[in-house]
Design a protein that fits this description.
about 240 residues; 13 helices
Length: about 240
């Protein structure tokens, strides 16, 4: 059992959380109807990038640019497909319920962030290509965040919304560093990073949930690390282990 007191002694690295407004706004007004949100109320991210994914378009476009740009553009297309596969198909509701997380934008964001980090950590083993994948995953995330905020009908000040997104960006960078450290260190360090990010250092959290998260990350990283580079580039090969197993 992971001891909460050990977590409390781990130095705080994550900046203060975003404002109550964005924390409390529900991503899914009906938490049991997540698919209808993806399909209807909030257009799938793919509607903005299917042209990029179109094979005919890619072949025609890529033949007109140098080989370096060919590789980079193809990698970005693959990476957008990875992002869409995650946010469109992942069972967020099961994750929320299993870990006793509220159905909010913040919960959606930290769960998505964790999976993008895992993909990025594996991709970085591919050197320069891995950096392209990592940066494109983040680029896709911010495009999707802006779209979701807009579709949720936020009536807040645009400047205020932008400042919140900037703050989220800073938190994401800090989280990636903390997760990297946890991945390379022991379970206590990884548990501390997950506890601070998912539960905002709450001393009321059930440590069973933190243990589940640690096991989930370790298990999925082992699966990802076994993939060849060719397998990694195909989103169909990314099979996330259940949080329940």
């Amino acid at each position: 059992m992971i001891n909460i007191q050990k977590l409390l002694r781990i130095p705080q690295r994550i900046p203060k959380e975003i404002s109550t407004a964005i924390h409390s706004q529900s991503l899914y007004p009906n938490k049991h109807n997540v698919l209808s949100i993806h399909n209807k109320k909030i257009p799938q991210f793919s509607t903005r990038s299917m042209a990029l994914m179109d094979v005919g378009f890619l072949k025609k476009f890529l033949t007109r640019i140098p080989s370096l740009e060919f590789n980079k553009t193809k990698l970005k297309a693959i990476t957008y497909n990875h992002f869409e596969s995650l946010v469109d198909n992942f069972d967020y509701i099961e994750f929320f319920e299993e870990l006793d997380m509220p159905d909010t934008f913040y919960s959606w964001f930290v769960v998505t962030e964790l999976h993008l980090w895992m993909l990025s950590a594996r991709a970085m083993a591919e050197g320069k290509d891995g950096r392209v994948i990592r940066n494109t995953l983040v680029e896709a995330l911010w495009a999707d965040v802006l779209e979701r905020v807009k579709k949720l009908g936020s009536k807040g000040n645009p400047i205020d919304i932008r400042s919140k997104i900037v703050e989220l960006s800073e938190q994401l960078q800090a989280s990636y560093i903390a997760y990297d450290e946890g991945h390379l260190a022991d379970d206590i360090v990884l548990a501390g990073a997950l506890w601070r990010r998912f539960y905002q250092q709450s001393d009321m959290v059930d440590m069973v949930h933190i243990e589940k998260l640690v096991k989930y990350v370790r298990k999925n990283m082992r699966v990802l690390e076994k993939l060849s580079d060719e397998e990694l580039y195909d989103p169909k090969n990314i099979k996330w282990c259940s949080i329940n197993t």
